[in-house]
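User: My instructor asked us to take a sequence, write out its structure as tokens, and then describe one feature of it. I'm not sure where to start. Here is the sequence I was given:
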Amino acid sequence: MNHPPMSAYKKDTTYVSVTGVEGTPEEPPPEEPPEPVEIPAAYVVVTRPTAQPISNANQTDINFTSSAVIEAHTSDGMFSTALPSRITIKRSGMYIATANVMFANNANGYRMLRIRVGTKEIARLSIPGRAASTMLSASGVFYAAYGAIVTFSVEQTSGAALDMTEARAGVVLL
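Assistant: Let's start with the prediction itself. The structure tokens for your sequence are:
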């Protein structure tokens, strides 16, 4: 009777070759792919429900005051009413930031909206003032590391202070 050498072992009914032992090597069963991991979205949308006076010819950060309406956010805590002029990135990655602002009626000068990540400007729109309300919308895609600061600012040159009557901004992890 011919027995397999000690260098082979039996798995089910097929011998697996270890070192030069003849037999039918057994392939391990294919592994099931792991279950997908659900990563919660990271986003924030804030709205300033009241007017903010903007002085003439000065870049001014939009202040989403403690009365700001936080429409939707995750537990990431990207917006805090204690720091109402900024959104703080809590996860490194690619983002899109967008903002919409409305200025009161005034046909003089121009109106400008900027979005910055740290000191880098990622979006800017400048248009002439209008006799009717002036709305500006801007957005930009950017990479940000944990802790990066996103700010939204406006400027106007009507010759006097002018109200920004509405503001809405959002940041979404792509």
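For the description part of your assignment, you could build on this observation: Residues 57 and 157 are 5 Å apart (CA to CA). Try explaining in your own words what that tells you about the chain.
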